[in-house]
Amino acid sequence: MAIYKPDIDKLMANDDVEGLIEALFHEDLVLRKEASRALKYVGNEEATDALVETLRYDSWQEEYSVMGSVRAYAAEALGRIGDKKAVNGLIDALEDPDSEVRWKSAESLGKIKDLQALESLIYSLETDEDEYVRKFAARALGELKDPLATDSLINALKDKEWAVRKSSAQALGRIGDKKALKPLLNVLNDEDVDVRRQAVISLEKMKKHAIKPLLEKLYDFDWQTRAISADALGRIGDRKATMPLAKALSNSRKRDENRYVRGKAAEALGRIGDVRAIPYLEKALEEKYIYVRKRAKDALDLIEISPELEHYENEFFSFEYHNAWLISEINQKGKLLIGFCSKNNIKFSLNIKKDVEDLTADEFADVIIDVFNEQNALKVTKQPLNIAGYSGYEVQSDNFEVDPPSRTSVYIFRSNGDLYYLWFAGKPSDIKNTSKYIKITLNSFHLKL
């Protein structure tokens, strides 16, 4: 008699968690794999116990390679569900013979953020032979934010793999232990630019403690280190950095030889907003390189309107916005912030789609276009755009069939597996008149990765 095989796609489409749980224990091992993968997307706390049981390694599984994938998907699903009942099972899985199971378990423990996992994650960071396990153990320790992990993370800044060093620098920034200040400064000489950039982001979070060391790095032999140090000083925003940055931009004796560094110095001066920088920025308008001239012009515009700007910051991101805008945190159903400009009735929102593995910014822009077309928009445009250092897209829709006519501008980019989009809507004339403020918000948007 034929064995009944459930239709996993149908169960998933119907959000049939109970049916998928039953499929987790089917004698067809490939079906188990498909069921555990499906529970990544539709699972809830009802599936926790079954997934923990599925995660448990048994010696018979060594003969069936597919079971490694079953356990790995189960670990991932438990992280997405976020039920603390899974913590012990995930801690045990840090010793699984399959490295993918171990790193996905570490990643999930970071998402659940239970301090019970602290010692086990530290042990994985210090001893696991697989670089992905060490990388995700470091990330998870950053999510736990316990200073007890600081020493191990500092040691991991010397790991042979750049991804581990980068994740360790990121974690130290999240923890914020001042003990990490000097080691992070040493990382600014790391051979990998991504590691250096992450160290600077972490130093930003230490604010005033990092200013003097970052100023010293403005004279580093490596131009990339000088550039990311200038960027960090601008994001910290302390006026102590004004004159060193101004001199790096256009002082005859101390002008930096690299145009990219000069451009970053100009950007930083715009963020700081100190009027003492104006003569240096005006001089930079005579540069032969458009890269520097453009950033100097943007900085001058920003200093001019800086009294009209407010600064928004939380532990995840920051940006500048017009002081007439009212911003509210809501953090529900993918919407992080909503805003409203009382001056001209522009609506604003910041949204996120988390863990979108297969959806690119380009593809999501096309989804937005489809939505606008379904709304019978008169004109829809799409163009690539750099959004605060991220490659992204602008989608704009005009609808003149409504009263009053409306324009919607959506700005889309991806970072670390998450997709962000900023949404501005209002009358076309108001959107146009506010475009410089929208540009400032976009250019100042900063993810604290």
Low-confidence stretches: none
Basic shape: flat
Largest sheet: 7 strands, antiparallel
Between the first and last Cα atoms, what is the distance in angstroms? 55 Å
* Mean pLDDT score: 90
Report the β-strand fraction as a percent range.
Answer: 15-25%
Structural class: alpha+beta
Instruction: Please bin the fraction of helical residues.
Output: 40-55%
Strand order of the largest sheet: 3-4-5-9-8-7-6
Q: Report the total helices.
A: 22
Q: What is the C-alpha radius of gyration, as a whole number of Å?
A: 25 Å
Report on this structure.
The protein is built from 22 helices and ten strands. The radius of gyration is 25 Å and the shape is flat. It starts with 7 loop residues before the first helix and ends with a strand. 53% of the residues lie in helices and 16% in strands. The protein has helices spanning 8-13, 17-23, 29-42, 48-55, 66-81, 87-93, 99-112, 118-127, 131-144, 150-156, 162-175, 181-187, 193-204, 208-217, 223-236, 242-250, 259-272, 278-284, 290-305, 361-374, 428-433, 435-444; strands at residues 309-313, 317-322, 325-332, 335-341, 346-353, 379-387, 390-399, 406-415, 418-426, 446-447. By secondary structure, it is of the alpha+beta class. The strands form two sheets. It has a seven-stranded antiparallel sheet, with helices on both faces. A three-stranded antiparallel sheet has the order 1-2-10. The longest helix has 16 residues, at 66-81. The model has no long low-confidence stretch (mean pLDDT 90).
